[in-house]
Amino acid sequence: MPLRPAFFSSRLACAAALALALPLAACGDDGGDPPLTPGDGGTPDAGAFVSANPPREGYRRWIKIEPPGAVCSDGSQYKFFVNFSTASDNLLIDYEPGGACWDYPSCSGQTGIMGAANPNGIPDDHMNLWGIASPLLRRSRSLNPAWDWNMIFMPYCTGDVHTGNNDITYTDETGANPPLLFRHRGHDNTMKAIDWINENFPTIPRMFVTGCSAGGVGSQVNYYFLRSGLPQVQHGYLLNDSGPVFPEGGFSDPLHAKIRVSWNVDPILDTLPAGFDVNDFGAINTLLADQFPNDRLSVTFFRRDYNFSVYSYRRFYTPEPTKDEIHAMFWQDTQNLVAMYDTRDNLGYYIPYFRDFNDSHCTSVLGYGGTDIAESSVDLLGYIQNLLDDSVPLASYLESPQPGEDL
């Protein structure tokens, strides 16, 4: 089965939503819900919510931000997008998915080799797709518990799950192609976004950080820098969707060792609080829980995810593992992660078994159809509502194998 990075064309997104009967409204609208306030959406309405933050150039539409010095892998300008709210000072930050790369075959996109999204930079109309692809980026009461929050979308174009710190030249071992200069600048792009957020959001009562796949990893690894770099945040929430950072001693160790060198992440990890073990990427989970004990931090993915698991294992074991072997490796790593999460009350997980779409990858993409867990009456939407509800304990769910699925 060929690997499919977790990003979509807009036509595919709409077609898939209709085919699966996912609970989305027609692609491109806001789910039919009323606007945040009466009016045309250009400015706040008289008598409505009064923000503690500065006036904006526009509201409820995606605005491009280009931080000076922020770049994509090809050296082009990095940009992110903000959608200001007229009803809240809370802030949602969503990291884009899209694979990863760490050598010439993967970063050059050679046929049959894993690659990463947007290698030629971020187009200005990027939100024409991503404004509908994630329900968490849509202003719909029925789909998004953060529907009335300010929103920032962090595109992905650095091949490093938003965490790299290296300009590296990869060479083609066959000699058939010229060297490739690749800028793994994901960490720096986040730090520049933090600077912009500080200038534009002096007040942030609640911050919700999320993303799927590469964006899920990015949401988790960057959470410390966002939380510590934005001291005005009063309450923090994390949903790492389908980018689990597994503990040391599992089958993900060879991948972690490879990207540690290619992306030069040690200098970044060295800035984390004392006690963090740079040899154990998975320690980021308990570090965040202990560093921010009042925040609510969670991970979600399907047990039968055959996208993230392929990225994690296929190229790091000889002979190449079979599909069944990959699933077994992923399940063992999952059990290690669940055991780690069970040691902290502010760590939660939502792990359904299987969905017959996108190789069971990214639980929050397009909608919540197929994310329910047999042993409970909750789906992913209900779990996110629980995550953002400070009045109840943070829950965890792990679905049992479902007969007849994933055949």
How would you describe what is shown here?
The longest helix has 19 residues. A 9-stranded mixed β-sheet has the order 1-2-4-3-7-8-9-10-11, sandwiched between helices. The chain has one domain: Alpha/Beta hydrolase fold, catalytic domain (Rossmann fold, 3-Layer(aba) Sandwich). Helices cover 27% and strands 14% of the residues. The chain is built from 12 helices and 11 strands. It is an alpha/beta fold and 407 residues long.
Name the poorly predicted regions. 1-41
Count of helix runs: 12
Class derived from helix and strand content: alpha/beta
Q: What's the helical proportion of residues?
A: 25-40%
Distance between the termini: 14 Å
**CATH class identity:** Alpha Beta
How large a portion of the residues is in β-strands, by DSSP E? 5-15%
Domains (count): 1
Q: What is the CATH topology assignment?
A: Rossmann fold
The tally of beta strands, per DSSP, is 11
How are the elements arranged and paired?
Blueprint: H1 10-20, E1 62-65, E2 80-83, E3 91-95, H2 104-108, H3 127-133, E4 150-154, E5 166-170, E6 180-184, H4 186-200, E7 204-212, H5 214-221, H6 223-229, E8 233-241, H7 253-262, H8 266-269, H9 283-291, E9 296-300, H10 308-313, H11 323-341, E10 347-351, H12 380-387, E11 397-398
